[in-house]
Request: fold
Amino acid sequence: MTTFVDRVELHVAAGNGGHGCASVHREKFKPLGGPDGGNGGRGGDVTLVVDQSVTTLLEYHHSPHRKATNGQPGAGDNRSGKEGQDLVLTVPDGTVVLDKQGNVLADLVGEGTTFVAGQGGRGGLGNAALASARRKAPGFALLGEPGESRDIVLELKTVADVALVGYPSAGKSSLISVLSAAKPKIADYPFTTLVPNLGVVTAGSTVYTIADVPGLIPGASQGRGLGLEFLRHVERCSVLVHVLDTATLESDRDPVSDLDIIEEELRQYGGLEDRPRIVVLNKIDIPDGQDLADMIRPDLEARGYQVYEASAVARTGLKELSFALAGIVAEARAAKPKEEATRIVITPKAVDDAGFTVTYDEAEDVYRVRGDKPERWVRQTDFNNDEAVGYLADRLNRLGVEDRLMKAGARAGDGVAIGTEENAVVFDWEPTMMAGAEMLGRRGEDHRLEAPRPAAQRRRDRDAQRDEAQREYDEFDPF
Ligand SMILES: Nc1nc2c(ncn2[C@@H]2O[C@H](COP(=O)(O)OP(=O)(O)OP(=O)(O)O)[C@@H](O)[C@H]2O)c(=O)[nH]1
Ligand SMILES: [Mg+2]
Reply:
């Protein structure tokens, strides 16, 4: 079997962030020191990087589950947890990254082009980092966040300047073997080539790559032969070369109708219409081949093709052909926008750190809060620790979540969900409680037991509370 794989499903999991540590400094005879819990380490990323020495996705076919290492938890004595190690996966030039639905996430072309397929989770802050003038000895720390995990599909679209297409046994691989140093398999039976071959050609000062694809036959678009699947490898080329066999022994074939059939299959595949084409009449070392070539040349030229004659076996016509291709390639390169030559680093999404939305979710009868920060903060919260929960409430309030809930029409006792349907933390909203038992320092007082206040008074009180909270928070922001 062949060891070429050009499409794989890959499951990547970035490392989880380590948890922050809640610890109190202890010294002999000085039992009550300050908080000294260190931060958790960041989880490692999973990144894809183009390495031109890699030619297949085979490695991922064998082991499709890849995970970066987790960050270590923080420890007492202000020791931070170790960061997780990034996992770097090398992929061939021209690898396209898709999601399971087939949407293109990235197109990795050019040595070193990088794509972060999974982002490591942030480490949680330890209680030392959470301490502030007001919260001198936090009895809690933040949890590390889970690393991003997802399923992606990698699809290789060979990066070659020139693509050879034609019937099986037309001599495509033979031409690559004499134009370049590549040594593809050559044999006198059809479908010798099962995977694209790639060669590097030097013609004068131009260096370009040339690839063939498995032979095409009539009906390839309906799946006959090896089908059209491999044509994806010619999508990036700047010139298509029709390799026509002038010496075929099959009675119902001749180079011109071969050309028509291949063109029809290319049309079925689609997307290659704008690529310039040239014709190579191969195998002219055979006497009948040369005669046939002479006969059909005018017809092909009349159709507008540049026609070259060659023999891969006798090695004739190769120089003209390689220089002609170099010319077209050079022209195509000059016409291409410059940026394509530079290396791009792509990350999956712009992190929307600022905003959040509040909407009423009728199906679940909750006010749903969505946003990077609120959702992250929920993930960082240890819900078994009241102080940590109070801290979450403070953060949310400070971001303006309470305000927006109010504007959206939420009333005390309404359900509030933070996060997606599948992954939400839901609680009953109690505005003054939300503002934080901890923050307002009014533990033991339950506002719900107070005599009802007029609305204007309530609003004034709330504003005063918010201003107070704001003042306190201005002195502290861990991020
Ligand atoms: N006489 C002669 N034979 C050739 C020439 N080029 C290729 N051949 C022969 O034709 C046969 C097919 O050559 P390949 O290079 O394998 O053809 P291909 O187009 O790559 O075929 P597939 O991979 O099956 O699509 C081999 O037996 C070659 O030796 C040529 O210029 N002259
Ligand atoms: Mg071949």
In short: The pocket of guanosine-5'-triphosphate (ligand 1) is lined by residues 166, 168-174, 186-188, 190-193, 212, 214-215, 282-283, 285-286, 311-313 (CB under 6 Å).
